[in-house]
């Protein structure tokens, strides 16, 4: 359902060009639970941001001054063929801002290490926030939010504030918020990075359950959790795939 074709991302700084993603090609199918492992700075968050439409991949119009390149990128000097991200077979090369907005708001849910909850809002209101931009009616928002909170085991905590919850409970609220719109894709950036081992395992079991009917792509620093819970493990290094335990290339393009 997602196909990355030679996706690159370079950051221009004053002194040099930092290559965060170096022509990454990888396909993801529906309902798989993919863990992405790799050292800090290898491009995992950049990859997740591009898949989620939070950040744009390079489209080939960036001017590169060879003397500013600090990374082995000889092929860029020979010419650069821009990449593409296909969503359900559809190219995003010509996506406008409103297309990215629609994709982000309706098709993707995000989960972060730091939960990113809003402190002065209740649990219920935080989950309703997940539907703010999708044009859902107020009453529907509330019933969908309660459904999502039931799914994560928090229906008795809907009127609490985030600071009355444990870390694991806060992450459950964030997961409910990500689920509220019923997106096809869940992107999780180190969802257990701030949690103890037992709580991490509970959260992973929940995410694995969610992946029964959604594509879940999760960045983690924890190889043990990845091997225990994920269906597929991708190792990242220096902006490219080092290994892929279950590569997938059988996707139809229509
Ligand atoms: P992590 O390793 O958890 O992904 P980092 O500390 O590497 O987090 O980076 C956090 C965020 O800070 C990145 O997603 C990126 O947007 C930003 N960032 C990282 N490195 C730089 C940099 N050299 N210049 C500007 N922003 C950066
Ligand atoms: P990871 O998530 O694996 O830690 P990131 O995707 O955060 O890696 O970063 C990949 C590389 O891109 C790193 O070298 C980082 O410093 C750089 N980077 C990320 N965001 C920015 C940014 N906004 N500006 C400049 N460099 C960045």
UniProtKB/TrEMBL annotation:
It is found in: Cell inner membrane. It comes from the Bacteria. Residues 2-254 form the ABC transporter domain. Belongs to the ABC transporter superfamily. Macrolide exporter (TC 3.A.1.122) family. This is Sulfate ABC transporter ATP-binding protein. The chain holds residues 1 to 254 of 802 of the full protein.
């Amino acid at each position: 359902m997602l196909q990355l074709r030679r996706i690159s991302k370079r950051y221009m700084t004053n002194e040099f060009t930092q290559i965060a993603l170096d022509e990454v090609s990888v396909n993801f199918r529906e309902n798989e639970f993919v863990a992405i492992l790799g050292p800090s700075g290898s491009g995992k968050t950049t990859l997740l941001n591009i898949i989620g439409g939070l950040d744009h991949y390079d489209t080939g119009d960036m001017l590169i001054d060879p003397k500013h390149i600090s990374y082995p990128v000889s092929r860029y000097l020979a010419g650069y063929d821009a990449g593409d991200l296909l969503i359900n077979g559809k190219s995003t090369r010509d996506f406008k801002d409103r297309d990215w907005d629609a994709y982000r708001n309706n098709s993707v849910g995000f989960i972060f290490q730091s939960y990113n909850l809003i402190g002065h809002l209740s649990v219920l209101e935080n989950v309703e926030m997940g539907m703010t931009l999708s044009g859902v009616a107020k009453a529907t928002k509330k019933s969908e939010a309660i459904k999502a909170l039931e799914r994560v085991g928090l229906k008795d905590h809907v009127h609490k504030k985030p600071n009355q919850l444990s870390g694991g409970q806060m992450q459950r609220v964030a997961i409910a918020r990500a689920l509220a719109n019923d997106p096809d894709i869940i992107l999780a950036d180190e969802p257990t990075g701030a949690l103890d081992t037992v709580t991490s395992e509970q959260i992973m079991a929940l995410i694995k359950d969610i992946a029964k009917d959604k594509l879940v792509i999760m960045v983690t620093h924890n190889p043990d959790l990845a091997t225990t819970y994920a269906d597929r493990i991708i190792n990242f290094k220096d902006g490219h795939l080092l290994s892929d335990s279950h590569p997938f290339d059988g996707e139809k393009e229509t």
